[in-house]
Design brief:
about 525 residues; alpha+beta; Cytochrome p450; four-stranded mixed β-sheet; three-stranded antiparallel β-sheet; about 50% helix; binds protoporphyrin IX containing FE
Length: about 525
């Protein structure tokens, strides 16, 4: 018996077919961007682009990029799509150097910030072009070795405090979350320096400040349905981000800096901290004792608040995760831990105290830190945006011309993948501080290691970051040891939602005392 279809069935079938064809056409047209620009590329099979696993928060973006990197390792670069947005992944260290250093003038900016708040937009990290250049020049004198030496005592005091706070746990051989232990130490250091306030958060881990800081770095689980919508259109993504419940947090830090600034302006006290230098930049336009360099403008209150906030977010989590990954590797590799302890003991026996100069003598610990930053670069990728049309060299390594970059295209440097590339670091999973002896370093491409970025826009706080991590580890290991235990994740599992490289379950280790009580 023939089935009678309703009168509109044919129209519906035609409409569905037409819609499918239109979608198919848009999809393929859009994802042919890199074909037209002449770059090797991977056409995605989902509208989420090639990085869909990090978009649905199944793995870190660094791991998504790593899949592309491994697949295209023979090429100099590869085009891909993050959502609908065409991006370029740089693979060859010579091309990375070309973009970050040689042709920096065409790639001065990072990918635009998705958070539309003055405390984020006025930060050095997010500034663009000439504005960035002028501010970088103003802030650089805050990080000279002379300035760091004047801040050393603040850092040292925080180290002594950490040792004091951990004494009870070490005596009982307790298991601690080292991510939190070191986050409290670096929070104390950076907050004291940047905001000019003494928090005592190591004694009081639930203080307001630490609570807000936890919220700041808490991975934001944006519901998948919003994400799925948002990847199709950057303006929608920006709108959703601006609606995320983080505004109170900005207000908290903004008010805190401004109150401290007003207070210190009304009741001047000379302190060796960043706040003192911010005050000089706000009132005079330059840091005392450093060359004025003919730049006469002064930082506004908003700009001071944005930089103080930036120093805090850029400074505490990066160093504390580095410290906790170092502790993890020392627990997993007890022979390396023994060498570290022996070096610390020998140097401190000779110099009598922990000082700026005694730290400089601990060369093996430097190597341990370098190897930690290779295996666990807190900032696992760098971005640069193309300012003017730019022709890349051939993707295959030949002399000919390569892909054309249009203004606005974002380039990504996969720091994590480069650090794990066996061509640069054989047996990359192995933790081997001896990769960092001078002879071995000399044989490697200088752009095979970039934990602090590279070129004129590299990390301005590198020396402080290394100093606070090294000093904290010296304080810790001159009194305690670490051991793995049943709660330790071996191997570690990275957290796909963390802002800087971190582990899902943190780093849990047993602490024991070195000296019998
Ligand atoms: C272990 C510690 C640290 C690591 C691994 C680290 C890593 C990085 C990386 C990879 C970048 C991007 C560089 C690029 O795009 O080429 C960066 C930028 C930056 N970092 Fe750090 N950082 C650390 C500590 C610090 C500290 C302690 C501060 C300040 C107190 C700081 C302040 C900044 C600032 C202001 C920028 C932006 C620079 C600019 O755009 O001119 N960082 N950092």
């Amino acid at each position: 018996m023939a089935v009678e279809l309703p009168w509109w069935a044919d129209e519906l079938a035609v409409a569905v077919l037409a819609a499918a064809l239109a979608l198919w056409f848009c999809y393929f047209r859009h994802f042919s961007y890199w074909t037209n620009k002449g770059a090797p590329h991977l056409r995605p099979w989902t509208p989420f682009g090639n990085c869909y696993k990090s978009i649905v928060q199944k793995q870190m973006l660094a791991e998504d990029l790593d899949e592309l990197y491994r697949r295209f390792r023979g090429k100099r670069y590869v085009g891909f799509y993050r959502g609908l947005e065409p991006r370029l992944l740089l693979i060859d260290p010579d091309v990375i150097r070309q973009i970050l250093v040689k042709d920096f003038d065409n790639f001065t900016d990072r990918e635009p910030s998705i958070i539309d708040d003055p405390i984020m937009l006025d930060q050095l990290f997010n500034m663009k072009g000439d504005k960035w250049r002028r501010l970088r020049q103003k802030l650089s004198p805050m990080f000279t070795s002379g300035k760091l030496k004047t801040m050393f005592q603040t850092l040292n005091d925080c180290g002594f405090e950490m040792v004091e706070v951990l004494a009870g746990a070490a005596k009982e051989g307790r298991v601690l979350q080292f991510r939190e232990v070191f986050a409290l130490y670096t929070t104390e250091v950076v907050a004291t320096l940047a905001f000019g306030v003494k928090l005592n958060c190591q004694h009081n881990p639930d203080c307001d400040f630490r609570m807000w800081a936890r919220l700041l770095l808490q991975p934001r689980a944006i519901p998948f349905k919003y994400l799925a919508l948002a990847i199709f259109t950057p303006p929608l993504r920006r709108y959703l981000e601006s609606k995320a419940p983080r505004i109170n947090l900005f207000e908290y830090f903004d008010n805190m800096v401004k109150e401290t600034l007003h207070d210190r302006l009304e009741n001047p006290v000379k302190k060796n901290d960043f706040m003192e230098m911010f005050i000089q930049l706000h009132t005079k336009g330059f840091v005392e004792g450093e060359k004025e360099g003919g730049i006469t403008w002064k930082l506004t209150e908003n700009e001071v608040a944005a930089q103080a906030f930036l120093f805090y977010i850029a400074g505490f989590e990066t160093s504390s995760t580095t410290m906790s990954f170092a502790a993890y590797e020392l627990a997993v590799n007890p022979e390396v831990q023994e060498r570290v302890l022996a070096e610390i003991d020998a140097v401190l026996a000779e110099s009598g105290e922990i000082s700026y100069d005694s730290l400089a003598k601990m060369k093996y610990l430097d190597r341990v830190l370098s190897e930690t930053l290779r295996k666990y670069p807190p900032v696992s990728w760098l971005t640069r945006q193309t300012l003017r049309p730019y022709r890349l060299p051939s993707a295959d390594g030949g002399d000919g011309e390569g892909a054309l970059l249009e203004p606005g295209v974002v380039l990504m440097v996969p720091v994590f993948s480069v650090h794990y590339d066996p061509n640069h670091f054989p047996d990359p999973q192995r933790f081997d501080p001896d990769r960092w002896v001078d002879e071995a370093k000399g044989t490697r491409h200088p752009f095979a290691y970039m934990p602090f970025g590279e070129g004129p826009r590299f990390c301005i706080g590198m020396r402080l970051g290394l100093l606070q991590a090294k000093l904290g580890l010296v304080h810790f290991f001159s009194h305690y040891r670490v051991e793995v235990c049943s709660q330790t994740d071996i191997p570690l599992h990275f957290d796909p939602m963390a802002a800087v490289l971190a582990c899902k379950n943190g780093v849990q280790l047993r602490i024991t005392s070195r000296k019998a009580s």
